[in-house]
Structure formats: C-alpha cells, structure tokens
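so my prof wants the structure for this chain in the tokens format not the other one, which i didnt know existed until like an hour ago. anyway here's the sequence
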Amino acid sequence: MDSVSQFALGAAIGVAVMGRRTAAWKAALWGGACATLSDLDVVVDYGDAVANMTRHRAESHALAWLTLASPALAWAVARLAREPHLFRRWWLAIWAVLVTHPLLDAMTIYGTRLALPFDDHPFGVGSLFIIDPLYTLPLLAGVALAVRGGSRALRWNALGLALSTLYVGWSVAAQQHVAGIARATLAARDGEAPPAARLLVTPAPLTTLLWRVVVVHDDRYEEGFRSLLDRAPTMRLRAYPNGRELREAAAALPAVRTMQQFTHGFYRLSETGDGRIELSDLRMGQEPWYAFTFVVARRTNPGLGTVAPVNVGGRVDAGATLRWLRVRALGRDVDPPR
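here's what i got, hopefully its the right format
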C-alpha cells in the first residue's frame, strides 16, 4: 500500500496498543514513523531494473526479520520517547506496527515475501489497489480524533481500525464474487474454466467497485472489466497475444525467469518494430499500459542479444483513464481508453 496508508495504519495500531500509557500523539507519531521503515528498501540497488522491482518487499517485509528487529527498535523508541519503563509495551506496539505493514501489502497484487528466509514465495491476495481512500480515511479520522483527545478518543481510533479491517474483508468477498462471474463466463464459452492459477482478479485504481480480470492461456491472454453494478450474468473479455513465439528464445534470459516466478505466470513478451524485446507484468496496469514493462533483449541474427533491463512502462493518459473509471464503475459497459 501507499506510504500514507501505511503511516495511518501504524499510527492507529500504536495508539491502540499503547492506550492511555502514553500520550496519543506520541504513540501515533512513533507508530506511523516505524510503519514506513520497511519501504526504505526502495533505495537499495539490486543490480538492474527487474531485480529492483522484484526484490522490493523482500527481506524488509519478512515477518521473521521484522520480529527479530522489533526489540532493538522498541528500545530506541522508548528511549527517545523518554519512557524506558514502558519498554515492554513499546516492544509489543512496535512489533505489531512492523508486521502489519507487510500483511497489508500482501493484500495488494504486487508480491510480498512474508516467509523469508524460509520461503521465497511472493504473496499477493490482490483484493486491494495500492491506493484506496476507503481503506485509509477511517484510519486517518480515528487517529486524528484520538490525538485530539476527549473521553471517547481511544474508541474513535478503535472504530477506525475496525472499519478499515472490515473493508479489507469486503474487498476479498467482492473479489471472489467477480472471480465466480469470470469462471462462469469461461465455462459458458469454452465448456470449462481454466485452473485458478490462470485467472487473476484485481481491483481497478482507487476502488473495489470495479474489477479487472485477466485470463492467461498458452497462446494469448484475455482482459475484461466487471463492475459490481453490472447486471449481465457474464462479462466481455478481449484477447491479446502473449508472445508465445518468443518464449523459447527468451527462456534463458534471467529477467524472464525472474518475472515468470514473481508474477506466477502473468506476464507477456512482445517485440517492437526496432527489434526490442519487451517483458510486461500483466498484473499491474491495463492494456496497453503496464506499470512494469522492461526492455530485456534485442533481436540479433541469429537469436536474441541480452541487454540490461530498462523499465519503459508508465505511459498513461491519467485524465482519460479516471473519467473512464468513473463511468465504468457505475455499470456502463464501455471500453477503456487506448
């Protein structure tokens, strides 16, 4: 999730765990600050653009490492807060703040390696977009009211935490509802639905009212959108080439192997007119724009020549996309901007 959401969650947990043992502003400040520490891994250079993307949310987001780091960080916070006598309580608060950061991140589709160093699997439920105001605003409101004080201060903070947690639960339920419709669409068309690993359902930006569906086949992938306000029993899917003809030639490229594992197979290969081989993560973005599209090779004679990966993704008409999101979320089945 974005840094504002992570700060708000950390602040709310800090206030909830510390309770009346310390000032609410102090618990919120230290909780929010510690909640953002895991994302400092973005400053680490892992060698190339693909590695930098896939190693984000790795060791700094591992529950085991964060648990081991929590007592030292809590000791420093207790000293800086001039409350060494509350070390044990600060330890509990800081530990809770640290581990909830990657757990929240795992609700997005990016991929969070929670189980390091025991397992390198990137977890991604994919029921929340990286920025969602309906998740963040209750936390901010609860913390603000808690810091303001009053007899109900801690209750407001608890209410904000409860509402944000319920929203996460709602997102999972909505995701499963849309996944059921997608499977029904494929079954009605093809006679059977693909295995669950080949079907991806993620929310559109800023909302859980509109959902994006990606289905990966051996020779193509399909994309469609489903609003919770749509009335049709099935949904439209549009097919695109996935670069199957490039797979054998590109299979030995380290970037391709890494992306295949990190995206659980939701990637495509494509060749531009000047012979560049591009590798796209199909999970984040929408056709034809993807946040992570890397140039990983160039066409040579014969075969492919490896190049240092460069991210060329990120081109999008934000205004047109936001206007389309509003219309499509309200149930009008119109195509996205191209």
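also thought this was worth mentioning. The longest helix spans residues 153-190.
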